[in-house]
Design goal:
Strand order of the largest sheet: 2-13-10-3-9
Bound molecules: 2-(butylsulfanyl)adenosine
Shape: globular
Strand content: 15-25%
Radius of gyration: 28 Å
Oligomer: single chain
Largest sheet: 5 strands, mixed
Number of helices: 25
Number of strands: 24
Helix content: 25-40%
Distance between the termini: 64 Å
Length: 687
């Protein structure tokens, strides 16, 4: 048996702590302080050490999130403390009645309430024993749930071991209760990907979360973008628990456990109602689905004292949002042609206001969905709109038919260019076969110019439609060879606009390779796969020359993805297109980052910027600091080495003073950058 040198043991511990911290910054705060590459390097180092010394592997190591074999079925778990449910109220009057009862039964009126969103997901109980994640279970019927330990382990937001700050004690047994859910954007991406792969779509984020959590193979769960947010504790043994509910949430937060967003404490019913109205108004903009606001009595002793009716504690209630569903009529069905030529049926509706927004179109997804809904033209249908999801038809109401309804017939010719439409065997969608169909081109250009791709500012749907209709763009590379003389003649194109557009187009030539690959719009190549391809091959030429085997060798790439990429680069038209991009000056290879020796006064230092800088922008300063090996973080802690304060510094300055962190000025920053080898002409481009 090998013995592990103590310094390696310490290094493994350090790596796990660092990974824990960067995970939290990335997944919970959405404010990473290190690059993906740095994070990956730490993971790799940890994996290598664990491979060399397997005795170092513990179940709470970040390398152990995935790896449990598929289960035969789920074991059951008895909840020692039952997981209760919530009563509902649907309007202000009902809410006031609920609060009145709380006042009456407690004989008090000085009661604080906590408000928080009611997340639409799956309730789970997560157990930490001595600070180590040991079990995850679904709520089930409140008394008995399913053991989903291996699946919950794959949720990146959730720490597998707690690293409490020195002044935060952790009980021997800590049960965290909360919701596993999926963000709307992630849900849409997942469904889009499933659509492309011909898999059935999830009806809503909640179903997607539930379906992902109840996979017998944790590997599948790991591939799904699940989130977690705590809304309570259950077991809490060996220590007194915080006295208030807000105290519980604050406590969990200090342990890096993600908690319900935007919880707040109020002292009166009127204040709570102001907050509920705010939620009602902003619910459409949320990143996640919430079906109400939960209001809880803050004082936990009083909460318990108020007791339970049936399965519902008296001290909490859910103020439910009104449904965002309406009934309307399908006037006719349009088939829209996307970037890949895919035809999507769109129900054109009798306009109806849903949750304050006029809805005239709703997606019917594909022919199978039309079949499933049994919907016809002229039918009354229920339409639903949630968050930023495209409105959709959720049911047809055949009982309201009058005999004039007509079946929805999928076209056999492209509604835009008239070319043939095919439905490939085993696929749910039809495709226009014409690669230069104007509808496809327009959608391709929009995708190419979009934010996550080449990011050409000001180049949206209107412009791509116009340029295609005028014949100014016939293929993607034409974007870089526009006839500006002709554009100058168009209405609405003043010199300034042309100037801005030309500059935006010029700037886009220099995007990282992964963006360019993504921008090409290869089927099954989203942002993630594009990044993997760029990392793996480093240049378009090497990617284009890849064999199917090469592509299949990339972790996570299956035959569908590999085949699609391979075919794309073996289509002569695409080869020609990439050649043209290259000739026009678009960057098609990764340029290696300039390696600078990480020495000098700032190397390895953690720094914070505050206030306004005069000689360089915030972004330039951050970039320069990173180049010389400093870590730029957004808040001051005792681990901060320097705070650089410009003009009118904010609260970070005060915090630095309180903590005794060294505060320096802009001059010091410039000097230290120079000493680290940055020539300032580089940091400050002539403007
Ligand atoms: S408290 C005793 N808080 O709603 C009440 N529940 O109807 C314990 N839920 O099973 C639950 N967000 O799945 C609570 N902020 C929140 C919640 C929340 C969502 C769900 C949870 C629970 C159900 C109760």
């Amino acid at each position: 048996m090998s013995t592990v040198p103590p310094d390696l043991r310490a290094r493994v511990d350090e790596l796990r702590r660092l990974i824990h911290r960067y995970n939290y910054e990335y997944y919970v705060l959405a404010q990473p302080t290190v690059s993906d590459a740095e994070y990956d390097a730490l993971m790799l180092e940890l994996r290598q050490l664990e491979a060399r010394y397997p005795e170092l592997i513990t179940p709470d190591s970040p390398t152990q999130r995935i790896g449990a074999p598929p289960a035969e079925g789920f074991a059951t778990v008895q909840h020692e403390l039952p997981m209760l449910s919530l009563s509902n109220v649907f309007d202000e009057q009902e809410f006031r009645a609920w609060a009145e009862r709380v006042y009456r039964l407690s004989g008090r009126r000085d009661i604080e309430f906590v408000t928080e969103p009611k997340l639409d997901g799956v309730a789970v109980a997560i157990l930490y024993r001595n600070g180590v994640y040991t079990r995850g279970a679904t709520r089930g019927d409140g008394y008995t749930g399913e053991d989903v330990t291996a699946n919950i382990r794959t949720i990146r937001m959730l720490p597998l071991r707690l690293y409490p700050p020195d002044d935060v004690p952790v009980p021997a047994v800590l049960e965290v209760r909360g919701e596993v859910y999926m963000r709307i954007k992630d849900f849409n991406d997942l469904n889009r990907q499933r659509g492309e792969e011909g898999l059935p779509l999830f009806a809503n984020p909640r179903n997607a979360a539930a379906g992902s959590l109840r996979q017998l193979d944790p590997g599948i769960t790991a591939s799904r973008p699940l989130c977690f947010a705590a809304w309570d504790i259950g077991l809490f043994d060996g220590l007194p628990a915080p006295a208030t509910h807000a105290g519980v949430l604050d406590y969990l937060r200090r342990l890096s456990i993600p908690v319900v967003p935007e919880y707040a404490v109020y002292r009166t019913v009127d204040e709570v109602l102001v907050e509920v109205r705010r939620w009602l108004q902003t619910r459409e903009q949320l990143e996640y689905e919430a079906d109400g606001v939960v209001v809880k009595v803050n004082d936990r002793a009083l909460y318990d004292q108020l007791g339970v009716v049936g399965r519902e504690p008296r001290a909490a209630t859910a103020y439910k949002f009104p449904a965002i569903e309406k009934t309307t009529l399908v006037r006719h069905v349009e088939w829209s042609v996307g970037r890949t030529g895919k035809l999507t049926p769109i129900a054109i509706l009798e306009p109806v206001s849903i949750g304050g927004v006029m809805v005239e179109r709703a997606s019917l997804h594909n022919e199978d969905e039309i079949q499933r809904l049994g919907v016809m033209i002229g039918d009354a249908v229920v339409v639903q709109r949630r968050g930023d999801v495209i409105p959709k038809v959720i049911t047809a109401i055949p009982a309201r038919r009058d005999g004039d309804e007509r079946p929805i017939v999928p076209p056999d010719h492209c509604p835009v260019c008239g070319a043939h439409v095919v439905r490939l065997e085993g696929e749910v969608d039809r495709y226009c076969v014409n690669p230069s169909c104007p509808a496809r081109l327009k959608a391709q250009i929009q995708h190419f110019a979009s934010r996550g791709a080449m990011d050409i500012e000001g180049f949206g749907e209107k412009l791509s439609d116009l340029f295609v209709d005028l014949g100014l763009i016939r293929s993607l590379p034409d974007i870089y060879e526009l006839d500006w003389e002709q554009i100058r003649q168009l209405r609405g194109f003043a010199e300034k606009r042309i100037e801005n557009l030309r500059e935006a187009i010029e700037r886009s030539k220099d995007r990282p390779l992964e963006r360019f690959i993504f921008a090409l719009g290869i089927r099954h190549v989203g942002e993630r796969n594009a990044r993997l391809l760029a990392e793996h091959f480093g240049s378009i030429d090497r990617l284009a020359a890849a064999s199917l085997e090469d592509l299949l060798a990339i972790p996570g790439f299956g035959p569908t993805v590999a085949q699609s990429i391979y075919e794309f680069f073996h289509e002569p038209k695409n080869v020609e297109m990439i050649e043209r991009f290259r000739r026009l000056g678009v960057k098609v290879a990764e340029t290696a980052p300039v390696a600078r020796p990480a020495r000098g006064p700032l190397a390895g230092k953690t720094v914070v910027l505050t206030g306004k800088l005069t000689t360089l922008t915030r972004a330039q300063a951050e970039e320069a600091l990173r180049q010389v090996g400093a870590r730029v973080v957004s808040s001051v802690s005792k681990n901060t080495d320097y705070v650089f304060a410009g003009q009118d510094p904010g609260s970070k300055y005060q915090r630095a003073q309180q903590l005794g962190v060294t505060i320096l000025g802009e001059d010091d920053l410039l000097r230290m950058l120079r000493e680290s080898g940055v020539s300032l002409a580089e940091a400050v481009p002539a403007s």
